[in-house]
Amino acid sequence: MVFFSAKQEVMISAEASGKVARVLVAEGAFVKAGQTLAIIEADKQNVTVSNAQAVYNNAKAEVERFENAFKTGGVTKQQLDQVNLQLENAKNNLRSAQLTASDVNITASFAGIVNKRMIEPGSYVNPGMQLFEVVNVSTLKLKINVDEKNIASVSIGQPVKVETTVLPNQSWEGVVTFIAPKADASLNFPVELEIRNNANNDLKAGMYGTARFGANGTSSVFVIPRTAFVGNVSSNQVFVVKEGKAMLTQVVPGRNFGDYVEIISGVQQGEQVITTGQINLLNETPVEIIK
């Protein structure tokens, strides 16, 4: 699959349970690293801290009492060791409670854009519950496959011209950051590029990308969903929408990429391929595409 992906993206989850007091950002908002995204009410956590503090204070007083008694022979060394162990456990429980209470502010781990917000004020969250998805598209990645006859001409740090059909009049410069040391089953080598976005962040994660090495060739492939084929891939037939009709079209498939198949010829980029409902179609059947 030759699609842009964000270099940094994270799903932020709750680390403590509680009621959402405030949500400070909306979807699409730009956030800075460390910025507070939401506030979870700390009432229950603070009660836990208070209880743990009380247990710790009692354990500390008990140790002092036993130490004085031990000096006069009132308690044994084993009894003193036991209360010291209880004090250590109380100390650890207090630290744990304090850490939990500090998790009431949900913060961004890096600068980026809030792509998804899954909570509202008043909702209740539990540890592990997903709250926000933050994506940084200032730098993107493009994972491509280079065949064995061309891989020798690819090197780490090599500049690559990157384009997308969505923005045909623009191009970006990418850099090769990774070359797989081993080919896949199709004798292709996975290669990873890093692309610096422009000031407007016009490139989006999920856009189809094309990488061109040098003046002549391209390492990208044109793919369509496997479900687009009539019957199965071996039929070499798909339906293409032309002038409001489903036209049965012969294609030459290439490599398989999971749920997608490379198209060598027969369909061009930009043509509309039908991916579902082919069982109800005949050649030149009038169709209306529902998006």
User: How many helical stretches?
Assistant: 2
Determine Rg (CA atoms, Å): 30 Å
The CATH architecture classification of the largest domain is Beta Barrel
Helix content: 10-25%
Q: How does the major sheet shape up?
A: 9 strands, antiparallel
Taken from the alpha-carbon principal axes, the silhouette is elongated
Classify the fold: give the CATH topology of the largest domain. Elongation Factor Tu (Ef-tu), domain 3
The domain count comes to 3
CATH superfamily of the largest domain: Efflux pump adaptor protein, beta barrel domain
Mean pLDDT: 87
The quaternary state of the protein chains shown equals single chain
Task: Estimate the strand proportion.
Answer: 35-45%
- Count of extended strands: 20
Task: Explain what this protein looks like in three dimensions.
- The protein is α+β, with helices and mostly antiparallel strands.
- It has 3 domains: 60 residues, Helix Hairpins; 82 residues, Elongation Factor Tu (Ef-tu), domain 3 (Beta Barrel); 64 residues, conserved putative lor/sdh protein from methanococcus maripaludis s2 fold, CATH 2.40.420.20.
- Strands 1, 3, 6, 8, 9, 10, 11, 12 and 13 form a 9-stranded antiparallel β-sheet that branches. Strands 5-4-2-7 form a 4-stranded antiparallel β-sheet.
- Helix 1 runs antiparallel to helix 2.
- The longest helix is centred in the N-terminal third of the chain and has 29 residues.
- The mean pLDDT is 87.
